[in-house]
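INFO batch 0412 | record 1 of 1 | parsing
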Amino acid sequence: TTEDGTTTTSSYTDKEIVVHFIDVGQADSIFIQLPNNKTMIIDAGNNDDGNAVVNYITSLGVKKIDYVVGTHPHEDHIGGLDTVINSLEIGKIYMPDVISQTKTFEDVLTAIDNKGLTITVAEKGVIIFNETVDGLKLRAEILAPNSVNYKDLNDYSAVIRLEYGSKAFLFTGDAETVSENEILATGANVKADVLKVGHHGSDSSTSISFLDAVSPSIAVICVGVDNSYGHPKPVIISRLLDRGVQIYRTDEEGHIVIRSNGSTLKVETQKESQISDDDIPVVINEILPAPSPNNKEWVELYNPSDKTIDLSGFYIDDVLGSGASAYKIPTNTFISPNGYFVFEFNNVFNNDSDSVYLISPRGTIIDKYTYESTVRDESFCRIPSGGNWSNQTCKPTKNAPN
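INFO prediction complete | emitting tokens
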């Protein structure tokens, strides 16, 4: 089960794993409270994020990090690690066997040296811990990197599978398809309930074969608001939506905290949604999939309620698993009470048969309609607006009652 709540700091009870995806913008930082009272951090954001990460951790009453992982030497992953190492008591440190000629990387090495610590190489087969807590398995294993020479630093990323009881998390750093394919080739168990989506939702990661092998129910994307890279890429969002994965994003929801007692998952977000997916009243009201040449296809939504509904970040998609990428409804898009909203498209819908989906930002299907064949310039509609779908095609009534 997943449910939304609001949290900035998170109380921590024994025998529970608590995974904090800290909102550090276009960067990664994941802090983990383990059910044996030990702690772990995977990356620490950019250089400017170090103090914020330390403050977040100390606000939880934590003074020691038992396991520190720097997935790979890019600033948006290890930038704040030197501050973390300098500020807290540290146990073991894991980093891949690759160097970077940057001050950021040197700062991390200096912080490690100053504390008399050493680096354990993060590579395939390394077991960070493997024990039992009240009869439940608690294990963290590094699945990648599998090689020592990559063209791209991202592929050196330490990929970690964390298991507690019957639940598992997969943390992928910025590992791209080269590394994903290597992991799959080893036959490693990558199945996980929660996937930290690789490389901030870039289309260079999260290949179909890898995603299907992981088969998550929840995906977390660590990504910056309006970032210049266009992350997460629409094709990746579509890939997740097509598989019914619930999507959580730091750019939209701030800090994301996932708790597990080893058998269930509970998700808490810093920015609480104003309305739950179960309470969205908006429906697909009319569809014109086969317009005359030079005219656009369109989908009309209708709000039968007496409340204005914020549609920002919702998606309109055609047949799940194929076709075009999901269309994301722009920010600050509102549909008024008993109001309509029309979205126009070019060459998205099939003329013979297709399905149209309205999907929440988190990946819940709010409404869907499937048609079998089309008549040019005739629509499929509900009669009346918000009512049952007509058995026959309709004369289009765009932005108006059916």
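INFO post-check: Helices lie at 50-58, 75-78, 81-87, 103-114, 177-186, 208-214, 234-242, 250-253.
INFO record closed
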